[in-house]
């Protein structure tokens, strides 16, 4: 996660006209109810890399880098507090600027959350890509989707798990076993960290 950055989603392509920085400042000041003492200072702002999408496709997100981390946090907190932020009659979203890998994982979690909500089950995504579900027995948080597979299956939701995700889980377990063994003065004779990282290489 980039400390001073945030992303704004669903702002129509071309809305920024000639200057992205000034556009974002105006967007923030007109859509968010920020305290008057907040001074919006932006170092740079631009669309996510990639070709401009077709008119029927979702717009590219806007990446904003603030000069002051605390201002970025204040903007995010206010956007989340308002819950529904609109621009030109459409809902837009503010979020952290996560790494591509975390964005991928969060997108998968959001897909599962949509399926859960379609079934009337409340759920949300916690940082970085954890799934929190409100069940009849109480709330339950799953660190990864692969950990949630049995529960999701009981709820009638199928999640495809990749080989990479299985290996990542095994690596996490191996790391935990190694730490435990180190505290006991020995190491388990199981798959090494180096071997697991070999399988996880791009």
How is this structure best described in words?
The protein is α+β, with helices and mostly antiparallel strands. The chain is built from 6 helices and 8 strands, in the order E-H-E-E-H-E-E-H-E-E-E-H-H-H. The chain folds into 2 domains: 5-96, Alpha-Beta Plaits (2-Layer Sandwich); 101-161, L1 transposable element, C-terminal domain (Rec A Protein, domain 2), CATH 3.30.250.20. The protein has a 5-stranded antiparallel sheet with strand order 2-3-1-5-4. The protein has a 3-stranded antiparallel sheet with strand order 6-7-8. Strand 6 and strand 7 (130-135) form a beta hairpin. The radius of gyration is 21 Å and the shape is globular.
Topology (SSEs and partners):
Blueprint: E1 5-9, H1 20-31, E2 42-47, E3 62-66, H2 69-82, E4 85-87, E5 90-96, H3 100-118, E6 123-126, E7 130-135, E8 138-142, H4 145-154, H5 163-184, H6 193-200
Antiparallel strand pairs: 1-3, 1-5, 2-3, 4-5, 6-7, 7-8
Helix pairs in contact: 5-6
Features:
202 residues; Alpha-Beta Plaits; Rec A Protein, domain 2; 8 strands; 42% helix; 20% strand; L1 transposable element RRM domain-containing protein; Transposase_22; L1_RRM_dom
């Amino acid at each position: 996660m980039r400390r001073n950055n945030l992303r704004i989603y669903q702002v129509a392509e071309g809305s920024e006209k000639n200057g992205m920085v000034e556009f974002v400042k105006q967007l923030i000041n007109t859509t968010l109810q920020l305290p008057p003492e907040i001074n919006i200072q932006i170092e740079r702002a631009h669309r996510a890399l990639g070709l401009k999408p077709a008119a029927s496709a979702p717009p590219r997100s806007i990446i904003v880098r603030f000069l002051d981390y605390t201002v970025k946090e204040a903007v995010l907190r206010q956007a989340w507090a308002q819950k529904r932020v609109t621009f030109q009659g459409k809902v837009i979203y503010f979020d952290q600027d996560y790494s591509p890998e975390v964005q991928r994982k969060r997108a998968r979690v959001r897909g599962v959350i949509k399926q859960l909500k379609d079934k009337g089950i409340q759920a949300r995504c916690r940082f970085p890509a954890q799934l929190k579900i409100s069940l009849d027995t109480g709330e339950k948080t799953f660190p990864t989707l692969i950990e949630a597979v049995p529960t999701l299956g009981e709820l009638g939701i199928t999640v495809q798990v990749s080989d990479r995700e299985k290996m990542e889980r095994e690596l996490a377990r191996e790391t935990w076993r190694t730490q435990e063994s180190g505290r006991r003065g020995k190491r388990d004779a199981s798959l090494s960290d180096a071997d697991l990282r070999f399988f996880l290489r791009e």
